[in-house]
Amino acid sequence: MSTAPTADAIRSQLADINDPESGRPLTAMEQVVAIEAASDRIAVTVGLTSHSAVLWKQTRGRIEERLRTAFPAVTDVSVTITPHQRAPGKLGQIGLEAKSVIAVGSGKGGVGKSTLAVSLAIGLARAGSRVGILDADVYGPSVPHLVGLEGRPAINDGKIVPQQLNPGQPVDPLPDGLTVQPMPIMSMGFMVPPGEAVVWRGPMLHGAITQMLRDTLWGPLDYLIIDMPPGTGDIALTLSQVLPLSGAVVVCTPQDVALLDATKAIAMFQKVNIPVLGMVENMSFFVCPDTGKRYNIFGTGGAERTAKELEIPFLGEVPIQIPIREHGDAGNTAANYDDPQARPYLESICSRLVGGLAARNAAAPPLPSLPTL
Ligand SMILES: Nc1ncnc2c1ncn2[C@@H]1O[C@H](COP(=O)(O)OP(=O)(O)O)[C@@H](O)[C@H]1O
Ligand SMILES: [Mg+2]
After folding, report:
1. DSSP state of 264
2. Per residue of the chain (373 residues), what is the pLDDT tens digit?
């Protein structure tokens, strides 16, 4: 009978598997909680944070595969993921408690920025991350409509009590230790009666965004997703002044004009020192439900080519699907994740986004670790 692998041998196999939040080795971040080994059995427990919830399954699979390959004589390899607590720090002068603040923007209106901002936020929340949404499109707020919420938020002690969106339950049950949390949402659309126009000058715009960020009771967040207005850099500049953003996701369609606008948006974000986390191509193609035939309505592959040229990550594509439009119009964007046609595209973008953040975090100073509960 073969001897049991030592804990050290097992640990050294895990030394180059990275924590999907910090991008640093699990072993260096004290996230290997327990190792048990016998000649025929290895059981490893690893702590992961809710920030990387969308990558728990993938990380677990990688660890399992690594151990099976390294210790072929062991027939029973079991990897358990438990929650690892790592509280968000306070960002900027406004003290927002969030780990990653992500702006979703483009140069052009109508490309599906708001739809994707809300969909990505919901995807992360359904996976078990704590997510809030700030609608920074002060002139044309569409987040309230996309999530079916309305009405003025209550003010408590000078603070805005945000509306909470229930993102719905995932199709597959979440791993133990993760739960779907209600999502705080703040938008100018809750403050101004529908149909009424906001006419503001730059400084007021700056004030409104700063106030929504600073005075909303967001609670501690893994992600704050910001739905950006189209076009000019005013809001991006304001954001870059009040808090450090993790970066921006730029949405475009495959059309040349949209790509040109997206390229300008990328330059704009870079100018105000907001890193571009990647590009998403929306309305990439349409598959006719009657015939199954694919139509490249706005052309195809343009965003991926542009991303390559600009050396920024390509995060994925989303086809034109009638239900995506219908769910948005019905105020039920969350239903995109109940839809087997839409879900895989959106989930894949969420995973690549979070994976990209981890890679960036690896280059930043390490985050303080709290003991695992
Ligand atoms: N992939 C898609 N398939 C079908 N309709 C979409 C898709 N993406 C966005 N839409 C629809 O296009 C319209 C514009 O989207 P929106 O998210 O408001 O764009 P933006 O914020 O860039 O102005 C909305 O009616 C939305 O439902
Ligand atoms: Mg919009």
Report:
1. H
2. 578 999 999 999 999 999 999 999 999 888 999 999 999 999 999 999 999 999 999 999 999 999 999 999 999 999 999 999 999 999 988 889 999 999 999 988 899 999 999 999 999 999 999 999 999 998 889 999 999 999 999 999 999 999 999 999 999 999 999 999 999 999 999 988 777 777 777 788 889 999 999 999 999 999 999 999 987 788 999 999 999 999 999 999 998 888 888 899 999 999 999 999 999 999 999 999 999 999 999 988 899 999 999 999 999 999 999 999 999 999 999 999 999 999 999 999 999 999 999 999 888 765 555 444 4
Lining ligand 1 with CB less than 6 A are 106, 109-115, 142, 282-283, 318, 320-321, 324-325, 328
CA separation for the pair 186, 19 (Å, rounded): 31
Q: Which residues surround ligand 2, an ion (CB under 5 A)?
A: 113-114, 142
Q: Tell me the ligand closest to 250's alpha carbon.
A: 1
**Region of residue 307 (phi > 0: left; psi between -120 and 50: alpha; otherwise: beta):** alpha
Assigned token pair, 55: 């990558």
Q: Of all protein residues, whose CA lies closest to atom 14 belonging to ligand 1?
A: 110
Q: Which residues pair with 78 in a beta bridge?
A: 43
Which atom of ligand 1 approaches the CA of 118 most closely?
Answer: 17
C-beta separation of 120 from 354 below 8 A: no
Q: How far is the CA of 227 from the centre of ligand 2 (A)?
A: 7
- Ligand number nearest to the C-alpha of 111: 1
Mutate to test the pocket of ligand 1, among 325, 329, 332 (most ligand atoms within 8 A of CB): 325
Q: How far away, in angstroms, is 113 Cα from ligand 2 center?
A: 5
Q: Domains of the chain (ranges plus CATH)? A: 7-83 (3.30.300.130), 90-361 (3.40.50.300)
Amino acid making up residue 300:
T
Q: Which residues pair with 123 in a beta bridge?
A: none
| Best mutation site among 115, 285, 341 for ligand 1 pocket (most ligand atoms within 8 Å of CB) | 115
CA distance 42 to 63: 12
Ligand 1 centroid from CA 227, angstroms:
13
Q: What is the 3-state secondary structure (H, E, C) of 246-290?
A: CEEEEEECCCHHHHHHHHHHHHHHHHCCCCEEEEEEECCCEECCC
